Amino acid sequence: MALLDDILRLFGTNRTRLRWRWRVLAERMTPRPPRKDAYKFDNKLCAGCGQPAGKDEKACPSCGTPLPAIAVVRATRAIRWLIPAGVPVATMLLLAACGALYFVTVKASFAFLGDAAGRSFAPHWWILLRYGATEGGHLSQLGEWWRTVTACFLHFDALHILFNGIGLWIAGQVVEERFGWARALVVFVATGVAGNLVSAWWRIDRGELYLGAGASGAVFGLMGCIVGHALRRRGGAARELKARFVPWLIYGFIMGFAMKADNAAHLGGMAAGLAFGAVLGERDRARRVLPAAAWAVLAVLAALLVGASFYLAARHPPPPPVLA
């Protein structure tokens, strides 16, 4: 059991939390007969003071805070019913996006290479460039800035996406649990772009020819966000976060040097993550840099930026190489 507890702790959970999540899921899935004496009330709760208000109220009668429409309240309740508490939605969506694009690039490589593809499950370099990997000439000379966004979701091989997927799951669910899904999504995209920009600046300045892809810059950004948040807090929870994620950052840089990975992207993502962690407030605290609604808007804009970047990558394909 001690080994199991260590493995679960590595992934940011424990047996008690797993049992609790399973109980919540089982309760939600258990059908319950309707009560004949039950009444349905359409009401609202003020986000400012927590006082109930009628469905037709546009402002809280107690403190005057504007209230959402009843349709928004019903939609929010439906989402909360469908998604159990504690499920890292943004992290799972990011993992799914990375996995889906890896499958697409591998399949496109088989179609591009034909019989020459063999049994390799590593996407061809031109396919990665076609789908939006970073490259010095395309960034500095052609100004294809969207590659700094699309490259965060592309990977070179199965081992690459496996390591990044594990890191994203471990760090992403912690960020999402403490700060919420919207801020987790914004931090992932922003730190990933920051890492790719630092990597491009470093390599272009040195005149290197390179092809950049991977979510590792964003993963280092998520871990940096956790460490930056823990550094400005006291108590056992902050010490536990530092004890978990500072070694992850150190081992990540050591592995990066050993495997000749893109440590410039790791450093840029981590620095941006530390900056986020230094200013972000936990989602259940009143003091925030921005209100929750503003972070939701930023998350939607980040998602639109990702979609627009892949659209631009599809509209500007590089010329295919001549296969021998």
What does this structure look like?
Helices cover 63% and strands 2% of the residues. It is mostly helical and 324 residues long. The chain folds into two domains: 42-80, no CATH class; 89-315, Up-down Bundle (Rhomboid-like fold). The protein has a two-stranded antiparallel sheet with strand order 1-2. β1 and β2 form a beta hairpin.
What are its keywords?
324 residues; mainly alpha; Rhomboid-like fold; two-stranded antiparallel sheet; 2 strands; 2% strand; globular
CATH class of the largest domain: Mainly Alpha
Mean pLDDT: 82
Task: Note the main sheet.
Answer: 2 strands, antiparallel
Assign a percent range to the helix content.
55-70%
Give a quick precis of the structure.
The protein is built from 13 helices and two strands, in the order H-H-E-E-H-H-H-H-H-H-H-H-H-H-H.
SSE layout:
Elements: H1 2-10, H2 15-29, E1 43-45, E2 52-54, H3 70-82, H4 89-113, H5 125-131, H6 136-140, H7 147-150, H8 158-179, H9 181-205, H10 216-231, H11 236-258, H12 263-279, H13 292-315
Antiparallel strand pairs: 1-2
